[in-house]
Every structure is written in C-alpha cells, then in structure tokens.
Amino acid sequence: MVIRGKWRQGKLLCLVITLCSGCSTLGVQPWERDQFAREDMALDNQKLDLMLDDHIYFSKEGTSGGRSQGGGGCGCN
Amino acid sequence: MQLTAIRKKRRSIQKSSTQNCSIQESSTLELTSVTSDNHQFKRYRNINKSLTIASLALFSTPAMATEIDETVQDIGDADKTSISLPAIVSGKKLEVTKIETALLYYQEQDRVTAAEGIFNLQASYGDKSELEGKLLLDTLTGASPNGAAPQQQQQTFTRPSGNGVYHAKNGETPLDDTFKDTRLQLNGNWTETLSNTDKVNLGFHLSREYDYTSLGVNSGAERSFNRGNSAVNFALGYYYDIIDPVGGRPTSWAPMLFRDDFSSQSEFKQAFDKTRDLSSSIKHTFDLSAGFTQLLNRYWLVQGNYSFSYLDGYMTDPYKIISQVDERGMAQGYLYENRPDTRYKQSVFLLTKGALETGVVDLSYRYSADDWGIDSHTVETHYRYQFTDSLYGQIHLRYYRQSAADFYHAFLPELGELPEYGSADSRLGKLTAYTFGIKFGHKLQGGTKFSYRLELYQHRPQDNGDERVGQLAHLGLYEQVNAVIAQLGFAF
Prior knowledge:
The complex is a heterodimer.
Chain A: H1 2-25, H2 47-60
Chain B: H1 2-39, H2 45-59, H3 61-76, E1 94-108, E2 113-125, E3 129-145, E4 155-158, E5 165-168, E6 175-193, E7 198-209, E8 212-225, E9 230-243, E10 249-250, H4 265-274, E11 276-277, E12 281-295, E13 300-313, E14 321-325, E15 331-336, E16 342-356, E17 359-370, E18 375-388, E19 391-402, E20 412-413, E21 431-443, E22 449-461, E23 481-491
Helix pairs in contact in B: 1-2, 1-3
C-alpha cells in the first residue's frame, strides 16, 4: 500500500512537472500578439451578455457560476 | 484579465500613436541600427534578443508613456492644439473609457415576464487604476410554479401573505400568479496594476428587492509570467443575504392553512401566524476561486477555473410547497418545503477561444457538484462571423444537464414519516436545458456600437423516478417551459 501511494504521488508529481514545463514552452513572442489584441478576442468582450445569461440560468437551474468570481446573491425566482 | 491588460496597453498605444508615430519610428530605428552594428560582431541569435527588447518596448505601457510624454512636451510648444493626451506627468486624471448599456426582455410562455436594464461604466484613473460601476434594474411579473403536483380536479391554494386564495385548473401545473418584484443591483470594482505582472482588485455588490437584500465584497489578485503567456488568479468573496418573505418565513414543514377550515378570520390568522416566523432570515456565502489563462499559439488560448462556495443559512424557498397525496394520487394537503441550511458547491470551468480569419469561436465546459446531490454538465459555444469590418453575426448554443437533489420529490405520500428535507422545486430536480441564440452587432463611424440578440431557452424537467400513484400516472408532472430572450445593446 505504501509503495502504491508513493507511486501515485510520483505520477502526480511527474504530471505537474510536465504541465508546468509544457506551459513554459507554450505561447507566443511579444510581436506575435496581434490576434490577441483584437477586441473580439478579449475574454471580457461579451461581459454584459454573459452576466445577463448567468442571471437567467441562476434563476432557472440548480447550479450557477463557475466562469469567474460569483456575482453575488439575489432572491430571483 | 490578462487580455484586458493587453487591451489597455493597446489603447494607450493607440492614443499616443497618432501623434507620436515618428517617435516610435525613431525608437525602432535606433534599435535597428544598434542591432545592425552588433550584427558585425555577434551571432544571429542576438537578433532575437534585440527584437525581443524592441517588442517589449512597444508593449511596455509605462516606458512608452513616459518616453512619449517627454517628447510631446518638446513638440507641444510648436503645436499645442494637437495634444490630447491625459496629463500623465502632471497628475492622475479620471477618464471614462467605456460605457455600455443593455435592455433585456425575458418572456416565458404563460408564466414569468422579466425586463432588465443595465448600465456599465468603465473608467481609468492614471495609468494603473481602473474603476468599473454597474447599475441594474429589473422587474418581474407573472406566474411561477408553486411546487404542488397537478391534479385531475381544480385545486385551491392560500396566498403566501395569508390573504386570499388562487386556483389551479384541473390537469394544469399549479402556478402562483402573485409573483411580482422589482430589483435594483449596484456593483463597483477597482483594479490596480501593481507591476507589469501583478494586478489586484476589490469590489462590492448590493442587490435589493422587496423581500431580499444581498450585500457582498470580493477581492482578487492576478500574476502573469512566462513572458505574459501565462497568468494565474485567485479570488475571494463574501455575501450576506437578508430574506424577509411576504407573510413571514414558514416554519419547517409548516402546513398550508385554509380560511375555509376556520370559523372566523381571527381564528385563521392566529393559526396562520403560528406557522410563521416573522424575523429576518440570514444566509452567508463564502466564495473562493483559482484560475489560469494560457496562450497556446498566435490564435488560441485556454482558460481554467476552479470555484468553491460554502453557503450557510436560510436556503429554503419560502413560497414553494409540496403536495401530500393518498394512494389514489389525490392531494390531501400541502406542506411548505424544507431545505438544508448548509451547502458546499464546487465547479470546474474550462474554456478555449480562438481567433479565426473571419471571426472568433469559443467553446466551454463546466462541471458542478454540491453536497445536495446536484451534479451538472454545461457545454456552451459562441461562433462570431465578421461580415464586414463593422458588422458581425453570432450564434450561441448551450446544453445543460443536472441530476436531482437528494431531497427532491415531486410529491410526498400522505402516510409515512416526513423526510428531514424535501422540495418539489423543479429547479432542484433532474432537468436538461437548451439555448439557441443569434446576435448581430454593428459599429458606426464614431465607434458607437449597437447589438441585437434573440435567444430561445428551453427548460425540460425530467422524470425523477418517483413512483406515480393513482391519477398522477396520467398527469404531466414535469412540464417543459419555453422562453424567449430579446436584448438590445449599446456601447460607446
């Protein structure tokens, strides 16, 4: 059991190292950011739409949020 | 948030570029000439270093602003009218950067109608501070399911206030037609850029309606690394909600009383008041989230977010009831629902977004789980096609599926022990939902933007597996609801 636990820990450590080293090689050079500078590529480009949608889904479904920090409560039925 | 930073830098560069392109050119030329000189002595890998320095100089807002500003002061004497830059050197200046408004109309077939107006203002204060304020007003009217099971005969229910009754026709889902509310919401957020890699934010939330008040604060921090290709963020939030239901809060498993069962109004009122707690109820919410954003290549990025919430306090819906039925499936009474007073929620959200030659596409998945037994899966995508530089069309698709809460029951047997908790609210039952939407947006010459959105939302409660006795076997316990969402947006 101890060996199996250590083996699992080892695999997890390898996964974390691989992901971290993978991230460090991912990405673009500063002069290759033209596409990300586009307005429609911003993650908050549809902020109001997403907020209004979240409000509707919050009042109609059993789970909500998750996309970003919660927007606070209301008694919406 | 990382892309917001890039946009802010880009805005700063754009503001300056019209008057200072010559400066940029001279800076670039200087760097190029230095590179050329070095070229004779060093290997070609140094070109990469020089280009990196040159590019970083272009993307480095503070350095750019200072350099440009000093030169602008020199040029300024010759052409003062051409200077429209904010006073960066002399002091900070509050400048409105974006105003967005939207009007939303939500209509369910024969049920709830909602109208919502939102006003969002973004402003910068100097180079490093961003402020955002949001004002939202919504009004809801119409009928909402009260949780009771439909019957082959007409049903009568006492209104939540105890004054008067409403009816449900035979075979129809019982709806409380007194549903009416107006809500005002106010949000503020302040974001401070601490360095080229670090940002912090602080926000507040206020929501007020007739029977519900929510107050909250939230805060977060973000750090970018790996040459700005990766970013991690961490956020905390706390919300304090006060619930004051119409007619008071029903006590646990309180029965619905009827005026006709009492000989006088005062007798009824006395008995009714015994089933109610008039003090305010409180709910605390603690939110915690951690996320990352990673640029993959020139066109694609991924984002991930883990959220954890702990809720403590009153979470029962004070207006929802549950039918108690006999072996023939006939309702013999109604009890006010009773939910647990704690809830742990977790969710994982993953998103990828890509820049296409003629538009943008994103795809996201969210998995949520809580200790009430509700697990949900959500898949959502937006595809935007740019018809011209100033006109786009967008398609929105969403699929949602959830399992039922452990204490969800469409009805309860009349005989037998009451469970500790119970609710017949279809939002806590097994359900699927679909959204299909289209949107068009266009930009006028001055930069003013208009958008038009139309969505169809289908809410499909599923059979939870409760054994249907007697007449309930022939009645529609899980009614589908269709809603139309129309939105008009305006930004400048």
